[in-house]
Write a structure and sequence with these properties.
- The protein is α+β, with helices and mostly antiparallel strands.
- The chain contains 9 helices and 14 strands.
- The strands form 3 sheets. It has an 8-stranded mixed β-sheet with strand order 3-4-12-9-14-7-6-5. A 4-stranded antiparallel β-sheet has the order 8-13-10-11, with no helix packed on it.
- Strand 1 and strand 2 form a beta hairpin.
- Helix 2 crosses helix 6 and helix 5 crosses helix 6.
- The protein is globular.
- The protein starts with a strand and ends in a 12-residue tail after the last helix.
Length: 324
């Protein structure tokens, strides 16, 4: 258990323990996960030792990206959708119509087809296939490696989730096959008196099946809302992922699994530390129909596709492209 406060604990699961467990051990871990995702909707997942260098490489490359001159970062953006490429301070519109105090970079296989390729891809090829990549080869290579690790981890979670749900893993196959998971990074700056008290990331639930969040451990700010109301800080130290359930899993389980509301709280001092996170947003391919899982409510006679659902949620949010 990971203690966030004297009476609030988050379940922690070690990936190597899951991979090495027998049927009884896996059932025990699945029961713990099921309780965790019903409330509060999150759990910690500790990576295996061989994943640590890839994580460190991705963090270092991401820091280098956000240290680039603004013009170099703004070369990596989509003119309409704020959830594609780079967005600067003031250009990340939240669900309340305001701007979150963060820089963001966001990419996935829909816009960068070399992500998730079965064979290693060199930076030159990747950048030729997508204009959203920055002119920073070490970043491109690191993110491809990290994305591959995240997809492998998603395969483990498919089995773990299915066992926790009490369904055959094949029931999730349609959602996992050729998925369109995205990789992102958020940089929350400090050092300017005007930043104090500004919204860094407004309250929201992720529009995903699940999100695997790495935080670099240099600063806190993340808090989650438990089902009975209290908001609780989660001070990640960079050694474990935080996995949170998103609205798509809540939808296909008819609310049995909870999409947890979360936020990044405003900085309260000029000299606070900047915060860097790398979330992996897991969604199926756009044409998949979001049907309820077996045993979780009556089948929907006309379930929406992911693309239809996202369009209804108006997630391609127009935002200023040149905000700094």
């Amino acid at each position: 258990m990971y203690t966030t406060s004297p009476d609030r604990q988050i379940v922690e699961i070690a990936l190597d323990e899951w991979r090495g467990a027998d049927a009884s051990g896996r059932a025990t871990l699945a029961r713990a996960l099921d309780g965790a995702v019903r409330d509060p909707g999150v759990f910690l997942l500790r990576p295996t030792a061989d994943m640590v260098p890839t994580i460190a490489e991705a963090v270092a490359a991401t820091r280098a990206f956000f240290a680039l001159p603004l013009a170099a970062k703004q070369a990596c953006l989509d003119p309409v959708d704020q959830f594609v490429g780079y967005r600067g301070l003031g250009a990340n519109r939240n669900t309340y119509g305001g701007a979150d105090l963060k820089e963001m970079y966001h990419i996935g296989p829909r816009h960068a087809p070399t992500l998730g390729a079965p064979e290693p891809v060199d930076a030159e090829t990747a950048m030729r296939r997508s204009s959203l990549w920055p002119d920073l080869p070490e970043f491109v290579v690191a993110w491809h490696r990290y994305y591959t690790v995240m997809q492998e981890l998603a395969g483990d979670l498919r089995e773990l989730f299915a066992l926790a749900l009490g369904i055959d893993a094949d029931a999730l196959t349609e959602y996992w096959t050729d998925n369109s998971a995205d990789l992102a990074a958020n940089f929350y700056p400090t050092g300017d008196p005007s930043y104090v008290g500004q919204v860094r990331n407004a309250v929201h639930c992720d529009e995903t099946f699940f999100t695997v969040l790495h935080q670099d451990g240099t600063a806190g700010g993340l808090s989650i809302e438990w089902g009975d109301g209290p908001w609780t800080p989660v001070a990640l130290d960079g050694t474990a992922f935080l996995v949170n359930i998103g609205r798509l899993f809540e939808l296909v389980t008819a609310g049995a699994w909870r999409a947890v509301p979360h936020q990044v709280e405003p900085v309260d001092a000029v000299d606070g530390e900047p915060r860097l996170t790398i979330p992996f947003f897991f969604r199926p391919r756009p044409g998949v129909r979001l049907q309820r899982l077996p045993g979780y409510g009556e089948p929907d006679p006309s379930p929406p596709t992911l693309a239809e659902w996202l369009a209804a949620e108006r997630l391609a949010v127009a935002a200023p492209i040149n905000a700094s």
